[in-house]
Amino acid sequence: MIEKKKFSLKVLTSKTHKLHKDGTRRGGVEDLVVATNPKSSFAEAVKSIKTNVTFSSVEKELKTILVTSPESGDGKSFLVANLATAFAQDGKRVLIVDGDMRKGRQHEIFGIPNDKMAGYSNYILRYKSTEDMGMMAFIKPEIYVKPTQVPGVYLLPAGPTPPNPLELISSENNKKLLESFREQYDIVIIDCPPALGLSDALVMSKYADVNIVTISNAKTKIDQLEDVKKNFEKVNSKIAGVVINKAKVGGGYYSSYYADAYYSKIK
Description:
Blueprint: E1 2-6, E2 11-18, H1 33-36, H2 41-55, E3 64-68, H3 76-88, E4 94-98, H4 106-110, H5 119-126, H6 130-133, E5 146-147, E6 153-156, H7 165-169, H8 172-184, E7 187-191, H9 200-204, E8 210-216, H10 222-234, E9 241-249, E10 252-259, E11 262-266
Helix pairs in contact: 2-3
């Protein structure tokens, strides 16, 4: 049974996208719904998300969007890939940064190798700004950032898992790298690890203009969402909206983005 409960976060749209009968996604091109079926109701819903996210950053220019979830398997990577596609279809140059160095899957969605000699983790380690390098050769971005099959969308895969991902993303190199991405791309979307049990998303939130949380209707409890909200508040960051994924409607599983102050509590 699903019970509506008042909650102090925004909602953006209630359009839905039907998944497989078992409530799962197969990965690969099947996840790129906005690209393969741009006239679908789901594609229109994602575009609505894009519009509302844009207006949620009225106080400053929207450049960087962070997407996380309470736990793994909540659908955040699926949202990131389709939201990036929606921005690109508006003529934006979009970079997806797979910041989940433990279980990144953006390379699987776009069919791009996760090169163990490259990726986000290696880029941070080796990155130096032109000022730092002086007359030395600047690291070529194309070694790390790859174009995807979606025009206008570029991907920086996660790369190999470092011994301490949190230490890496907290480094000055990462700060400079993300600042350079803001200059090179119209929109940067960071696919972060789950926000409960890991601090990566909280550390990365200081580089984002907007934070979005994806939850699973099938397993996320309202208390978990409240804990995520409190964790973001502790680092002076706000959540712009919540994605409710895998909602079971009429015998099928759906993915929805809600934008009012009401959220579902699974009993």
